[in-house]
Fold each of these.
Amino acid sequence: MPVTNKKPNSRQVFGVQILTNSHPEIKKIRLQTGHPSIHGNKFWKSTYLLMDYLKEFPPEKIKRKNGKKLRVLEIGCGWGVGGIFCAKQFSAELTALDADPVVFPYLQYHAQINGVDASTWRSRYEQVKKQDLDKFDIVVAADICFWDEMTKPLYNLVRRANSVGTRVVITDPGRQPFRDMAEKCVGKLGATYETWSVPHPCNASGFVVDYDPNYQA
Ligand SMILES: C[S@@+](CC[C@H](N)C(=O)[O-])C[C@H]1O[C@@H](n2cnc3c(N)ncnc32)[C@H](O)[C@@H]1O
């Protein structure tokens, strides 16, 4: 059998097809739209943690505010794989938010090849209001708290979501700004915060913070 070092430029994980930066379609998008500027330049591994965690603790059981489709908001979506997973796995309606609109063509291409729809919303997550959060059943995110100045706005977003009964699940490889935010969510809101890992072939490990205001043990 011939041995090759060539890495595949597409993989199927948790039922979602994910392309790499070397995939011809991704290269085409990059030529047309340029490089995302706030680290949305690739798929980040914390999304593996998010998908695995949501399979274990699915949002299916949470009370739907409109009684119909589960409505998911992915914040700091980048290529949007976490939200696309929710759209496929839970037949959810997906809104994908990012401060950098350059990520949206990458997200839309992934939505298309995975056979789901996604609405996009250009905004900074610190500007998402209570009334906006009230339109969703769950907010999901991966690797969006990497600078110190992100700790406070993200904690405040979790607090606002809490006040309107919206669940928030955020994963991270364990960067200090995220850990500070998560510890505040535990101390002040009673959120769940734990280590999480997904073995080979994903090889991802980190943390997850989950705050579900409607959860009853
Ligand atoms: C490290 S990437 C993670 C992307 C994606 N969640 C993933 O795991 O593949 C961080 C993303 O958050 C976005 N972002 C950074 N600061 C943001 C903010 N204040 N509001 C909204 N999006 C933000 C970036 O544009 C980028 O797409």
Note: The mean pLDDT is 91.
Amino acid sequence: MTYYIRLDDACEKRNIEKWDRIEALFDKYGIKPLIGVIPHCEDTMMDEYETDDNFWNRVHTWTQKGWIMALHGYSHKYTTTEGGLNPVNRLSEFAGVSLDEQKEKIKNGIEIFRMHGIEPQVFFSPAHTFDMNTLEALRSESSIRIISDTVADKPYSKWGFTFIPQQSGQVRKLPFHTVTFCYHPNEMNDVDFETLEKFLSEHKDSFNSFPTDQVQRKYSLWDKMLSFLYFIRRR
Ligand SMILES: [Zn+2]
């Protein structure tokens, strides 16, 4: 059993107090998560938070701790109602958007990271939704070959990318070999923090640093079965 954690929606506008709280928790248990950074946030959902002028310095602090940075979309604004290759939601910044537009988003997003001296190693899309054009845009505009998302038993290789599956929005036991738990610190309450800490303290040996190596394993029939059951249950 291998567990990973990813945190969504890191950007200048965020609930700093909750982000600091989860960082302290991860330091306590030696957790090295994947962080989804929104390079050019235009999502009005974040307007309720104050702006952190020190944000990119904080990103550097995270990378120095061995945390891995992901390109989490570009603007985080949903412009389509497509589910794409991973139809967890019918909302997307990417799925259903033209290849040229997607290339532009990826290129500009990476440029903002590089302006701040950070090289993103992983991609995951807002609302988990992306399509073949997203992969094509990543292939031509970036060196990113790791995607955090989709449902499978273990990491697998497909279309020239390594997919690290992401199956749950909260810590719990699940019938997968490898699980990524996805948290949105901005929206966490006290109970979420307490539940997470309890699970971390009981299972800390199963948590690994988020991986950045390519795998060779192919998507299997078993992965397909688990994914099928996952989407049936979701409906
Ligand atoms: Zn997000």
Note: The chain has a mean pLDDT of 97.
